[in-house]
Specification:
By secondary structure, this protein is α+β, with helices and mostly antiparallel strands. The chain is built from seven helices and eight strands. The strands form three sheets. The chain has a three-stranded antiparallel beta sheet. A three-stranded antiparallel beta sheet has the order 6-7-8. Helix 2 packs antiparallel against helix 4, helix 5 crosses helix 6 and helix 6 packs across helix 7.
Length: 239
């Protein structure tokens, strides 16, 4: 009987619209369907009802401050109304893609580059809300969406790298100046204490002489006897 029968299979994760002579008859669930092979036209349009992902990739956009960027955007959705998706809309996936693309362009154009990088989640949520109602018209339930990547063009990438380097250098200079100020303040406090305390001054002097003596193996002094005498007195005191 196989040559007299037309067989159609609908998988577990699919639903199908049955058209007889191009007229909608019913929606088919998972299973195996057989029809007599005759002059009647039988068409089955299948739709995947699992959670699906739509990629809006490589969108070249201009921000409010005229920065050229590329954005990779994604959305997750499920087909909820098979009849509406297939019968009332032609290529509902493409329509969903274009709707999301236009919403993304509209929002990106209202943000500067810095604002865009800081508010990616807010932009994604705004696109989600705008696209959700349109998706219902396509028989689709939009689950979530987000910005995956923000890619700078060649020139913008170089400019941003220069800005980042300048910012890091400025931060390093601030830290260096802060450390220098703290060191100077410490030296000033030490100097004031030494000025008021002769014994502390002598101890500090001995400390530096000891450090010098540790780092040298031999001292040669050229001059009169007064210099030798002074060095002798210093090392004698340090002991």
């Amino acid at each position: 009987m196989a040559k007299y029968v037309r067989t159609f299979e609908v998988a577990t994760h699919e639903r199908a619209v049955l058209l007889v002579d191009d007229v909608y008859v019913k929606t088919l669930t998972a299973g195996l369907y057989r029809f007599w092979r005759n002059d009647t036209t039988i068409k089955i349009v299948k739709v995947d009802v699992r959670q699906l992902q739509l990629e809006v990739a490589g969108q070249e956009l201009l921000t409010k401050d005229k920065a050229a960027i590329r954005i990779n955007f994604y959305a997750q959705y499920k087909v909820k109304d098979i009849e509406k998706a297939v019968l009332d809309n032609k290529e509902f996936e493409k329509q969903l893609y274009v709707t999301m693309q236009l919403a993304l362009r509209a929002y990106v154009g209202t943000y500067t580059l810095d604002e865009l990088l800081e508010n990616k989640t807010e932009i994604a949520n705004a696109v989600f809300e705008d696209t959700k109602m349109a998706a219902n018209k396509f028989g689709v339930s939009l689950l979530n969406c987000g910005i995956r990547d923000v890619i700078l063009t060649g020139e913008m990438k170089e400019i941003m790298n220069q800005v980042l380097i300048a910012q890091k250098k400025a931060q390093a200079n601030v830290i260096t100046r802060r450390e220098e100020t703290a060191s100077t303040r410490s030296l000033l406090n030490t100097a004031k204490l030494m000025e008021d305390n002769e014994m502390l001054y002598k101890l500090k002097e001995m400390e530096y002489v000891e450090k010098i003596a540790e780092k040298i193996g031999e001292i040669t002094v050229n001059g009169n006897g007064g210099m030798v005498k002074q060095l002798k007195e210093i090392f004698a005191t340090s002991k």
